[in-house]
């Protein structure tokens, strides 16, 4: 890759715009190109998000609950004037929390995305930095909770299955009436 192409990728004005990255992938072979992800670990699996997605670690405070909301929608929080939904994936997927996770989840939220496409998750542990090539993808989507399967782009293995989640499509599904 030419230095000018790498600099263009780093200076892309929209972090979620993958057109610069896609053109670089097509030049170097997408199956061999390694991509950076940040991952959230759960009991039997992990969720991957593209490292270029807007993300922010914030204090867990000022949560406003909604009456009669599903258990997995913990409520909403205000982050610099933006009203952000807070989802509990443990509740959504029927997973248990250990005591260490319970303590951390009371302290921090990970905000993913921006604007009306943002959502927050209580952290059960700090995110992992991971790197995979598409050639490493495996057909293990059936190991994911059924609710996630339609939104998984790829599955990778590193001590557990890691599912690359299309978080925008998943968010739209959560927002749609049941």
From TrEMBL:
Pfam families: CheW. One of its GO terms (cellular component) is cytosol. Residues 32-176 form the CheW-like domain. GO terms for biological process: chemotaxis; signal transduction. Gene3D superfamilies: CheA-289, Domain 4 (2.40.50.180). Transmembrane segments: none annotated. This is Chemotaxis signal transduction protein CheW-like protein. It comes from Reinekea forsetii.
């Amino acid at each position: 890759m030419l230095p000018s192409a790498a600099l263009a990728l780093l200076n892309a004005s929209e972090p979620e715009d993958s057109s610069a990255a896609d053109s670089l992938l097509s030049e170097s072979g997408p199956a061999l190109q390694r991509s950076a992800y940040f991952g959230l670990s759960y009991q039997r699996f992990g969720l991957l998000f593209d490292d270029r997605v807007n993300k922010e670690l914030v204090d867990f405070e000022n949560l406003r609950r909604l009456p009669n909301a599903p258990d997995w929608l913990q409520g909403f929080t205000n982050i610099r004037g933006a009203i952000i939904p807070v989802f509990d994936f443990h509740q959504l997927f029927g997973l248990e929390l250990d005591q260490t996770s319970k303590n951390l989840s009371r302290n921090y939220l990970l905000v993913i995305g921006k604007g009306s496409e943002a959502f927050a998750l209580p952290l059960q542990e700090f995110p992992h930095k991971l790197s995979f090539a598409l050639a490493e993808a495996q057909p293990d989507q059936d190991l994911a909770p059924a609710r996630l399967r339609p939104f998984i782009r790829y599955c990778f293995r590193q001590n557990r299955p890691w599912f690359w989640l299309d978080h925008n499509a998943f968010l739209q599904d959560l927002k749609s009436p049941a």
